[in-house]
């Protein structure tokens, strides 16, 4: 065995993730990252490849930790899209109100700093948001609503999720956040119910709309 000090790479990455989560990319200095991880600057570069690479690894660590929970919640109610969205937001609220982790959402916080991120890191943030969109859209797919309506609802749900993170960092109470979630779930349910009522009428009207002068 060599005399080099051994360290837990995953634990160091978790600490770096918290620094980016609390401070944002811009204010996560190398000194702060080194202090949190217990690594010198040279070890940070040698292990993770520099601040930008460490930032992207931290994003992936965050996404794998919470993304799995989101995916499980969204898939927990097959055939019940509204219940799936409710389950999704319960996971979101559990994270936001957990006093053991920083406020808000690392991805949401990073998205607000996109203009100052390097292109590769900015694209990484967008890709993680796209993954969330795909998960939410899949949960809404068990509906009679027009695909365009489902796409719009997906954007709405993802936007509300990101706004919850911003509100929580601004000091919004759990009651206020739950009020937003309640209204969001009601909007999703009402939109899907209206779409379900309108779809038979639209389908039934189609043959009549296709006939016209000169048709036999």
Name of the CATH superfamily of the domain at 56-202 = Tetracycline Repressor, domain 2
Counted by DSSP, the helix tally is 9
Give me the CATH architecture of the domain at 56-202, please. Orthogonal Bundle
What ranges have pLDDT less than 50 throughout 5 or more consecutive residues? Answer: 1-5, 204-216
CATH class of the domain at 56-202: Mainly Alpha
What is the residue-averaged pLDDT?
Answer: 88
**Kindly, what is the distance between the CA atoms of the first and last residues, rounded to a whole number of angstroms?**
88 Å
Residues in β-strands, percent? under 5%
CATH topology-level name of the domain at 56-202: Tetracycline Repressor, domain 2
What is the helix/strand order? HHHHHHHHH
Round the Cα radius of gyration to an integer and report it. 22 Å
* Helix share, percent: over 70%
The biggest beta sheet reads:
none
């Amino acid at each position: 065995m060599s005399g080099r000090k051994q360290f837990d790479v995953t634990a160091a990455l978790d600490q770096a993730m918290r620094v980016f989560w609390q401070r944002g990319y811009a204010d996560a200095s190398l000194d702060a990252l080194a202090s949190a991880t217990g690594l010198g600057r040279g070890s940070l570069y040698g292990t993770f490849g520099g601040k930008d690479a460490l930032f992207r690894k931290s994003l992936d660590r965050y996404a794998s930790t919470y993304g799995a929970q989101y995916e499980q919640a969204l898939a927990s109610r097959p055939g019940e899209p509204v219940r799936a969205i409710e389950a999704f937001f319960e996971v979101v609220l559990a994270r936001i109100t957990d006093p053991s982790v920083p406020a808000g959402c690392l991805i949401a916080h990073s998205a607000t700093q996109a203009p100052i991120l390097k292109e590769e890191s900015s694209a990484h943030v967008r890709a993680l948001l796209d993954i969330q969109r795909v998960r939410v859209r899949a949960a809404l797919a068990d509906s009679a609503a027009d695909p365009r309506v489902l796409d719009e609802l997906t954007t709405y749900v993802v936007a509300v999720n990101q706004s919850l993170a911003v509100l929580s960092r601004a000091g919004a109470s759990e009651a206020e956040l739950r009020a937003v979630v309640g209204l969001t779930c009601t909007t999703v349910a009402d939109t899907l119910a209206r779409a379900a009522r309108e779809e038979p009428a639209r389908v039934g009207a189609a043959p009549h709309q296709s006939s016209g002068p000169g048709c036999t």
